Amino acid sequence: MRLEYYLRETAAGLRRNGIVAFAAMSTAFIALFLFGLALLIARQFNLVIEAWTGNVQVAVYLSDPARPQTVTRIQTNLEQLPAVSSIEYWDKAETCAQFDQLFEGQDVFQEGVDCERAIPTSLRINLADPSQFDQITAALGCEADGATQEIQCTEPGVRDVSDYRDLLDRLTAITRVLSIGVLSIAVIMLASAIALVANTLRMGMFARRKEIGIMRLVGATNWRIRVPFLIEGLVESLIGAAAALAALFVIKVFFIDQLRGELQFFPLIRNSDVLAVAPWILIAAVAVAVIAGTIGMRRFLDV
Amino acid sequence: MISLQRVTKTYKNGVTALTDVDVEVEKGEFVFIVGQSGSGKSTMIRLLIREEDVTKGSIYVGGKNLAKMSSWDIPKLRRNVGTVFQDFRLLQDKTVFENVAFGLEVIGKPKHVIGQRVPEILEYVGLGDKLSNYPDELSGGEQQRVSIARACVNRPLVLLADEPTGNLDPNTSVDIMRLLDKVNRIGTTVVMATHDQAIVDAMRKRVIELDEGHVIRDQSRGVYS
Questions:
Q1: What are the structural domains of chain B?
Q2: Which of A152, A206, A274, A277 makes a 20 to 30 Å CA pair with B48?
Q3: What pLDDT is recorded for position B223?
Q4: Is residue A303 domain-resident?
Q5: Residue A302 lies in a domain
Q6: Which of A4, A15, A217, A229 would best serve as a mutation to test chain B binding (most B beta carbons within 10 A)?
Q7: Last residue of a domain, one of A122, A142, A163
Q8: Torsion sign, CA atoms B199, B201, B202, B205
């Protein structure tokens, strides 16, 4: 009875408000789409950062086979350096599992190539003070070849030292600029969505001011009066959210999936990434409805 | 049933509508509030359903202090106080039955209660044969009956009527007064604001006269002036 009443009132409200409700829904759609896009951009770049730098500033690659006592010796040496904040040892199994996961569905390791042979084990280092990179190379007795810039190390067991400080900084900066840029457009659009949804609610309440007046006279509770409008706003923003999710999947299928297989060593977002942003889009949609409801009904319905 | 104690109401624009008003109304009484336009009659009605707050003094309805009532309790108050107005306030897109049912529906009464009480009250007000008519198919008097039915369908303790005959011709007004009297006889306290002299004189009920916000007369079995 009660549910039926709310559904009937909501449907009537949406019909009556036709065009304005459509404007609210499409704005909510664009806003939530951009919001989801910003989240996906961040996820995409995090994948790239993970694949290219392991999310660390310095990687010390060890020669095969890496004996446990060699690993321990180098790790202990490096841990004593004041510039080092943390060190993690990645063995073959761990490294290959990580690559399999990042490049799932992409044939990075062509048939016959064995990951265990192709990928070296490594010590992954984050620096407490990134400007003190030289401490690491000095400790391992490494020197850059003047002509080729290739690093040669005298420390036994060390094959190569990679300095990812620059790359990591740049990738992080690009991620930040892109996702914050899109996110701020999304925020502006979300604000317009809130305004438009609030406006449909207000128009609905104005169209029904006589009914609302009678409801108050006969003692209907505030919630009884408000809930149909709140549901109306919620339906509008949830339809926008559903459309936004659909659009993100379309982008993933027709844009991202086309690149898969063409790009080597460039990991790409998958369906699970789109699914992972879905809850955030839904939360944003509900927030739009709640804020719009609060704004739209302020003043109008004070007893 | 109703008690106003030293009630003063000053609106935000500085107009003082009521000054130091003391009124006691017993359960089951029929009271006319008379006075010229702007004397404070409507303000009194609005205070009694807490559409407005008192500025000073206190009002009790059914033993409850309206000033201390939380906004959650206001709907409960209004379920116990029926209201009727000069302009009927009916919904044009709903039938007579639906208009009265609306009053129960929005306070969450179940369908079987609505199905039983609405025809009952419409029969009581003399509209038993007009259940599926729309308001614009009814005369003014009939529309006011629908409005009275809606006000009474939840069996309120008090019925407030603000100029209920203001839009009606004298003969129809008499019919409406008969109906209000009938509602009063089943125990409902009725407070009616009016400046219809003929009606007040004919009914010989208690009369409270307001002038510029002051009670200048309170007389049982009174006349208009």
A1: 2-219 (3.40.50.300)
A2: A206
A3: 85
A4: no
A5: no
A6: A217
A7: A163
A8: positive
Task: Specify whether the CB–CB gap between B200 and B207 falls below 8 A.
Answer: yes
Model pTM? Answer: 0.73
Domain containing A133 — which CATH number? Answer: 3.30.70.3040
Pairwise CB contact (< 8 Å): B103 & A2: no
Q: Could you tell me if B106 lies within 8 Å of chain A, comparing CB atoms?
A: yes
Strands (E), chain B: 2-10, 16-25, 30-34, 56-61, 64-65, 81-85, 158-162, 189-193, 206-211, 214-219
- Count of the separate structural domains present in chain A: 2
pLDDT tens digits for range B63-102: 899 988 988 899 999 999 999 999 999 999 999 999 999 9
Residues A174 and A47 in one domain: yes
Q: How many CB pairs below 8 A link A and B?
A: 52
Q: Are residues A173 and A292 both part of a single domain? A: yes
Chunk chain A into consecutive blocks of 10 residues (it has 303) and report each block's average pLDDT, rounded to whole numbers. Answer: 73 77 88 89 81 75 79 80 80 78 68 71 79 76 70 76 78 83 85 88 85 92 86 90 93 80 72 86 93 82 53
Residue A226: what pLDDT? 86
Which of A1, A2, A219 faces B75 most closely, judged by CB atoms? Answer: A219
Phi, psi (rounded to 5 degrees) for B220: -80, 150
Of B49, B50, B108, the CB nearest to A224: B108
Q: Spell out which residues of chain A touch residue B77, defining contact as CB-CB under 8 Å.
A: 219
Let me know whether A37 and A176 are in one domain: yes
- Domain range for residue A183? 2-51+169-297
SS3 percent helix, strand, coil of chain A, rounded to 5, is 70, 10, 20
Examine the domain organization and report whether A146 and A221 are in the same domain.
Answer: no
Helix (H) / strand (E) element for A62: namely strand A58-62
**Which of A112, A132, A163 is the last residue in one of the domains?**
A163
Task: Check if the beta carbon of residue A81 is closer than 8 Å to that of residue A135.
Answer: yes
Minimal Cα distance from A212: which residue of B?
A: B106
Using a CB–CB cutoff of 8 Å, tell me whether B107 touches chain A: yes
CB contact under 8 A, B107 and A224: yes
The answer to whether A217 contacts B49, with C-beta atoms less than 8 Å apart, is yes
Partner residues linked to B8 by β-bridges: B56
ipTM over 0.95? The verdict is no
> Which residues does A contribute to its contact with B (CB < 8 Å)?
1-2, 5, 210-211, 213-222, 224-225, 303
